[in-house]
Design brief:
About 70% of the residues lie in helices and about 0% in strands. The N terminus is likely disordered. The protein has one domain. The radius of gyration is 27 Å and the shape is elongated. The chain is built from 21 helices and no strands.
Length: about 425
């Protein structure tokens, strides 16, 4: 870790983060104190930030990143829309009867935590059970990190960091939606679907045709594998309620509304929530890991270790409370780590040109000092030229252009996929 990064890691941002988590946890310990201290803390932080606005010297960099930030925001909204459709369709296609009757998968992580409850001291168990941090905490911790650019805690631009965060999260949530929509696995909470979604009890005609006849009979499964064709030609019931949603009527097959329920498709999507079958990795844990990665890379210090401890605490709570299987949390941790690293070459957080020159200067510091001591001006000039030639400024400009083209191209690709899905389902 460089000296500059270590210095940033020991600053006030880490103290502010710990204070925010501690004050917000007072809602469980002393609600009256929480009502007083939380607005006071936000007021103090806001006033301090406002006093630094007129001293900030990197507004040009912020304006330069504004377009990419907006593009990343649009991409994020597109992926959230796709996720909301997938969340409800995964539940609706098989009907509530399947979700109620299908037992959850065995989860060794859940067993380990239950076993540790009997072995660990009660104080430690209470700490592990405590709801110290949630999804909104990680989002606010990142907001604090981005605004700390006003104080020089992280390198400008702050909007560039925000764009990278949203872009990486959008890609991660898109992959997550693809994952849990690809193969429907039972929820760790069998009551979840019935409590969250108002969908028909029976399976959709798609499931009746392609899944139900071959769901439990081993001979039927073997036969359909051998023939690689649907061979059961039983009667498929299609008594679906189809509301008039205009050009969005194609969503009826995915959302499966009921006559007595909500009538507007947008309201059905708003109620999708986090879903009940989001296996392969947890969306909450993805946000937590991306926050920790951004904090570690941009700020560092002991406070980043504190954030990672919160991530691990959140992971075991997700398993303990049966919001997710253990595999959801494990995969979310390494997927978030890998996605953040993959976007690093497109979204540089640091002035690589300046850092490269400093690194080169540090390596030749001894030679430069000796040349100056010997009054060897030619050698001093040669050494300084080496430092200047090591600057990858043109590469930095290329990265910034690639970042903008990549973000724009990804948005166009996402919109194209949505359009094609609309056309294909309308024809079907």
């Amino acid at each position: 870790m460089s000296a500059a990064k270590a210095k940033r890691g020991g600053g006030g941002l880490g103290v502010a983060a710990v204070a925010y988590i501690a004050v917000d946890y007072l809602r469980h310990l002393s609600p009256s104190w929480h009502e007083i201290l939380q607005p006071l803390l936000w007021m103090i932080l806001a006033v301090i930030a406002i006093t630094r606005v007129h001293l900030y010297k990197h507004w040009s960099a912020e304006f330069g990143s504004a377009l990419v930030f907006v593009a990343a925001l649009v991409l994020m909204l597109c992926t959230l829309l796709y996720e909301m459709i997938s969340v409800r369709s995964v539940t609706a296609v098989l009907g509530l009867d399947w979700h109620r009757s299908t037992p959850p998968l065995p989860d060794t992580g859940q067993w380990i935590l239950l076993g540790l409850n009997e072995k660990l001291p009660q104080v430690i168990v209470d700490v592990l059970r405590a709801r110290i941090v949630g999804l909104h905490h990680y989002l606010m911790l990142f907001v604090m990190l981005a605004f700390s650019v006003l104080f020089g805690s992280i390198e400008a631009p702050g909007l560039g960091l925000g764009a990278r965060y949203m872009f990486t999260m959008a890609i991660g949530r898109f992959l997550r939606a693809l994952s849990f929509a690809s193969t429907i696995l039972p929820s760790p909470r069998p009551w979840c679907a019935a409590s969250r979604f108002d969908v028909p009890l029976h399976p959709h005609r798609w499931a009746q045709k392609f899944y139900v006849p071959y769901a439990s009979d081993s001979y039927a499964i073997k036969t359909v594998i051998h023939q690689d064709m649907v061979y059961d030609h039983g009667v498929v019931q299609d008594n679906e309620y189809r509301p008039n949603w205009g050009f969005m009527s194609f969503l009826a097959d995915f959302l499966r509304p009921v006559p007595s329920g909500e009538s507007a498709w947008i309201n059905l999507l708003k109620k999708a929530g986090g879903g009940c079958n989001d296996l392969l990795y947890s969306g909450h844990m993805l946000v937590a890991v991306l926050t920790a990665m951004a904090w570690t890379e941009a700020y560092g210090g002991l406070s980043s270790g504190f954030i990672w401890m919160l991530v691990l605490h959140s992971a075991q709570r997700e398993v303990r409370e049966r919001h997710h299987y253990t595999v959801d949390c494990v995969v979310a941790i390494y997927v978030g780590f890998l996605l953040w690293k993959m976007t690093g070459f497109l979204w540089p957080l640091k002035n690589t040109s300046r850092q490269a020159r400093l690194d080169k200067l540090e390596r030749i510091e001894g030679k430069l000092y000796q040349a100056a001591k010997d009054s060897n001006l030619d050698q001093v000039r040669d050494l300084l030229e080496q430092v200047d030639s090591s600057s990858p400024g043109h590469i930095q400009v290329g990265k910034e252009k690639a970042m903008q083209f990549f973000a724009g191209g990804t948005i166009i690709f996402a919109l194209t996929v949505v359009f094609l899905a609309f056309i294909l389902t309308s024809d079907g």
